[in-house]
TrEMBL record:
Originating organism: Alteripontixanthobacter maritimus
Recorded GO MF terms: helicase activity
Ranges in a coiled coil: none
Domain of life: Bacteria
Alphabetized InterPro entries for the sequence: HerA-like, HerA_central, P-loop_NTPase
Lineage: Bacteria, Pseudomonadati, Pseudomonadota, Alphaproteobacteria, Sphingomonadales
Low complexity bias: start-end ranges: 27-38
Region (Disordered): 1-42
Name of the protein described by the UniProt record: Putative DNA double-strand break repair helicase HerA
Amino acid sequence: MNDMSNQNFAAAGQAHAGTEPRPAPAQPQIQTPAEPQAVTAPADNASQPIGVVLEISGAGSQIAIDLERLNECMADEDPSIALAGQVGSQIKIRVGDSWLLANVRNQRQDRRQGGGIIANIDFLGEGAEEKLTGRIHSFRRGVTRYPVPGALIYPATTADLKQIYASDGRSNIQIGKVYPTKDIRAGLYIDAMLGKHFALLGSTGTGKSTSAALILHRICEAAPQGHIVMIDPHGEYSAAFKTNGQLLDVSNLNMPYWLMNFQEHCEVLLTSTGNERQVDADILAKCLLRARSKNRLAESIGQITVDAPIPYLLSDLSNEIQNEMGQLDKATSSAPYMRVKNKLEEVKNDPRYQFMFSGMLVGDTMADFLSRIFRMPSAGKPISIIDVSGVPSDITSTVVAVLSRLVFDFAIWGREEKTTPILLVCEEAHRYVPSEAKADGSSVGDILSKIAKEGRKYGISLGLITQRPSDLAEGVLSQCGTIISMRLNNDRDQAFVKAAMPEGARGFLDSIPALRNRECIICGEGVAIPIRVSFDNLEEIKRPASEDPSFTELWQQSGGEEDAVERIVQRWRSQNK
């Protein structure tokens, strides 16, 4: 670049830095060389400045951009240079012998400069410069040395971004392409992402389920001996993991009822509220402990607690309640005992609860059950998909609570053994970890919050997938070290995600409402710097069954409706899918 251009940019910086306003004509313009070409060669665009630093602050700065230079860059063949200076794009600033990379957060017209643009930027990190090529290398997050007002701004090229997004040697999975480039692969660092939890957010219809399946498939391919538990509330993911996953639903889950702790027993068996609930809980605690104590395991252990996962017979629990009721004096009401006993009989006899309360589940199958759920050994199928769509709605949250608590307790009691990391993925997370305003006091919210806060100490990773991040419990999203945000249409959700994301991602976050389907913003521990990614296409056989039905196609078909209605009514009545 010639000396005249440097002087013009420097003059522009001094003009903006001045404290006293001056008439517009007296302001020096940010100019390009005297004879700009209509379409500049890529090398020229990369080597010529597009603006100047006006103001510096800790997290970001303010810059002035020349509109004419932006127009020249738009015609460049390099897509990174073509977007230079635009919202969400990356620019670079030379500081000594290093390059400082920044992200453009916003733009506004500079009224004093007659056609110029003022923009705020967020610093992302810095890298050293190769002396021969001028390229960036050894890029790292954070800033050690800031530029000064008047420093020149240059467009970041695709070659620069390749160096910045290149893997630093850590284990990673590739999930798509970095926007706006055509060939830079976007990777996620597995250990960093799973070590500090992650969240996948996106409104309905943005491709969230397919993107979740893509990430989990990539993890399974990278770690075929892994241990992943997926809670699937809608039965979408069974279709996606037929070849490399263990599929469990009400027909084959066989989850023993006695694995529930006392709090979970209360959720299933107690129907009362207020003071009555405490009376009923006291009765259940006394009788449950006695029922557990009758097992030979209890005799060999000695002193046991009401929470101990020791098998007991439902008939023993019922008999204990009956015996307690028979010892009452006339002044004491038998109503609390009848409430608990009647609910127990209802659960025992209801066919919908047989996956959990079957009389066949009384044997000590705890080790087999945990091995099956946690994929130990994985046998080439590292993920277990637990479809809870067939579970009665009144105990769905309790079933999820039991499964989540088993993951946590297994890790706690396994501290003496070799660490066995487990990834717990929870779809529709806002249903199970709701905010205080929507909390119902269920145990599932407590255990998932505990895993979010303490799980990483014990090798448990939590993956939260939700379309309503603003309905999540306060603090849970901030515990997620990596946030993958697809398009969010709701203002409250957008504000909630912005509050949880790091400062340097602001420019990316402002583009969340403008993301296309199957595009996302990723920031946090799992990536070197915040990036916008276009997800890869997933093979048909690996996609979840989450596509919306075509009304126009289905409403043009006819035939067999009467028989279908009969079959539906039959299944409805028998409560059997």
